[in-house]
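Thread: quick sanity check before group meeting

JM: Hey all, I'm pulling together slides for Thursday and realized we never actually wrote out the predicted structure for the chain we discussed last week. Dropping the sequence here so it's in one place. If anyone has concerns about the input, flag it before I start.
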Amino acid sequence: MKNHLIRCTIFSRKIVYFLIQYEKGTPMKKNLKILLFIAVCAIAGSGLLYVKEYSQKQQINSEKDEKETLIFLTSKRETRHIFETIIEDFNESQDEIYVEHLEVPNPDQELQIRAVQGEFPDIVEFIGAKKDDLKKYVTGGYLQALDNFSATRCVNEHFLEKLEIHNGTYVLPLSVNYRGIFYNKKMLEEEGYQIPSTYSELIDTMQQIKKAGKLPIVFADKDSWTVHQGWDAIDMSSRGSQDDLFQKVLDGDALLYEDSIALDSTRRYLEIRKYSQKQTINTGYDEAVKTFANGESYMFLQGNWAYPLIKKINPDIDLLFMPFPAYHEGDEKVVVKIDASLGVSASCTHTEAVGKFLDYVFSKKMSEYYAEEAGAYSCIKSVDVADKYAKAFTDSIRNGDFDLEEFAYESDKSDTRDALFQNFFSSPQRNTEKSFLKEWNDLLILLKGD
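JM (edit): ok, ran it. Output follows.
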């Protein structure tokens, strides 16, 4: 900081000296005087601003030094701003603990590196119920059991049971997610289009919108992870949980390319893509969300995790989020997956402090805030958030009329699967539904042997 101020001072003095000398030797134009004076003020101001920022950083570092510091690695970019608020509120609520928010571009990779280096974060956010990933961290001694934490008693038991590893609780789920179609309700109604309740009505509505020269639905194929999510939305709406199917495929008791629902799901996924933008492979997730949020498309096939970003871009949008329509009205099935969950490092030396932070996060007030901001269904007993935009999902979950999906790939394997989906749906003319599913079936068996 000292060097920065010295440089600013020297430069300012040079300009002042130049002003004096220039004025002595020649008549100076008024505008030039003013410009040079502004430059001096700007430089001086930047020095003062730097001092202020430096002081603020020093104050924060001082606070951290005086408190027990916990490192919290968040993983889901769509909800990082929500955790940021929760962390700030917690830090301001007491004088003994400071939670440092760690956000990185690739959290999965970051966590693996830190595990190897012996710098595992005190608290970790995991996305989904990737049991294979979690088991590795539990078996490797990186995560501690949370059975005796008071926050654990805040979570609905039927969600905890699905996440048990070695008969213990190692992560606490905050919310579940679900897949379906976002509709711009206001646009559809104002322009006289029918909000689909069956698959045939969906195709009919899309045909009318396309005929009017507008974009019915947008896809985000550039980010490969989004492609399989769309297929899941269709397949789960017809099948329910996919756990049984994939387990049978892995055990050699079933073939994906002979499964009638999988074949039909692939066919319908290809059919609705006729009503999307051209070259979907060039559209990324953020761009697709923006296209839908700004009213440039009427529909978006995705999961409820897109809700925060849609609302951030367009807070006034009138949304409706529904399961992918079945052939007959009311036959759609609701399937949910564990979304965000928190784990604690086995090497954490601030167990009591972690317990206090978890109690804060899983409290009724903070859990309600998280659920409302994320547009998610909470796993917390005390929370009953009525998501009007996704009533078809939340009513089913509240009534217990849903399937909880457990099957999940490990991170590296899911990347391989996603690439397969991306390649097929960006150039389906090279393949058929059956050839695609056979390739996926073979990939499942191959990945199993890793």
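AS: nice. The chain has a mean pLDDT of 86. Residues 30-66 form the longest helix (37 residues).
JM: adding both to the slides.
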